[in-house]
Amino acid sequence: MSDQSTNGGNGLERPVAQTDGAGGGDAPALVDPFGRRITYLRVSVTDRCDFRCVYCMSEHMTFLPRRDLLTLEELDRLCSVFVARGVRKLRITGGEPLVRRNVMWLFRALARHLESGALDELTVTTNGSQLPKYADELAALGVKRINVSLDTLDEETFRAITRWGRLSQVMAGLDAAEKAGLAIKINMVALKGVNEHEIEDMLRFAHGRGMDLTLIETMPMGEIDGDRRDQYLPLSTVRSRLAERWTLTDIPYKTGGPARYVEVEETGGRLGFITPLSHNFCESCNRVRLTCTGQLYMCLGQEGRADLRAPLRASESDGLLEAAIEEAIARKPKGHDFVIDRVARAPAVPRHMSVTGG
Ligand code: SAM
Ligand code: SF4
């Protein structure tokens, strides 16, 4: 397991509740220049991972030096300031969040905001490999739903996509999460010529086990070893193909994220589409993203960011930090600039998805 050391908690004790005003304070909400209220924070707690998915990372990645990482206490403090300012949903992601050492300390700390009612939802996006170890505790802490990334049900294709992963690890993770009572959404990146023929099987698998399925288009983020134009499969094509054999009805179901959902009549299950490239999903964007070094990205598809680590470390009170957050939200752009360029191979944004966590 690729651990990351932190000078965070010892993983044994529950953190002491802090008087941070979360949920009950008078602090004004965070509203961007387009009137969008920021209620959803995604936090990447590590850029490292035990897999090397072909669309996400190159095989030999250079990861951030450990000394640049925020400690778990600092991540907790930052998240708590956002909660005090009106964030109602926190998603812990990565890299693979569950390989960060003592990551459960952070979940235990953040769970106090669920208990106080300041937070509606604490959730996680994971490749599933560590769920046999952590699913029970996540559920006990109040995590209700998780996203598990799974692109194929075929052992060989799984190895080809993840390079370092084994399908059986993820299957054991799904079993553990199900047993713990967690609602599961499968995220499947649709890849041309790789897993596009498996989408219907995945639909039967997920819905057969009472899980939602969301399909994702590849996004042009970070250098990878191959050419993304070879992988890109527009979900508009996938949807029309599916509609020839399945009855898809648009439904207003929302999870706070960018997916648009249909109900599949034949299975009774939900199918989501995340289409950053073929459909602009920005107008209702309520999200910002924090990296494990304290950089706040106001848009997944743009470079604009604010450093929150310096104001966090400059003072024990949160005044500087709040001012930096307000300044950042005032710069949140209207939308992204993703285009899978037909000519150039350069990614639209140079950072990998594992930096901001998708
Ligand atoms: N390691 C965890 C996982 O795989 O679920 C969390 C982090 S991962 C970066 C979050 C999600 O982003 C995964 O569902 C993954 O499939 C997706 N992803 C990664 N790179 C992507 C890309 N270039 N385009 C679209 N989705 C991507
Ligand atoms: Fe790791 Fe998730 Fe990226 Fe795959 S998609 S390499 S599991 S961070």
How would you characterize this protein structure?
There is one protein chain. Strand 2 (89-93), helix 2 (103-116) and strand 3 form a beta-alpha-beta unit. The longest helix is centred in the N-terminal third of the chain and has 14 residues, at 103-116. The protein has one domain (40-356): Alpha-Beta Barrel (TIM Barrel), CATH 3.20.20.70. It has ten helices and twelve strands. The chain has 358 residues and is of the alpha/beta class. The protein has a twelve-stranded mixed sheet with strand order 7-8-9-6-5-4-3-2-1-10-11-12. Iron/sulfur cluster is lined by residues 49, 51-53, 56-57, 94-96, 127, 149, 354.
Topology overview:
Elements: E1 40-44, H1 72-84, E2 89-93, H2 103-116, E3 121-126, H3 131-140, E4 145-149, H4 155-162, H5 167-179, E5 183-189, H6 199-208, E6 212-216, H7 235-243, E7 248-251, E8 260-264, E9 269-274, E10 287-290, E11 295-297, E12 305-307, H8 309-314, H9 319-329, H10 353-356
Helix pairs in contact: 1-2, 3-5
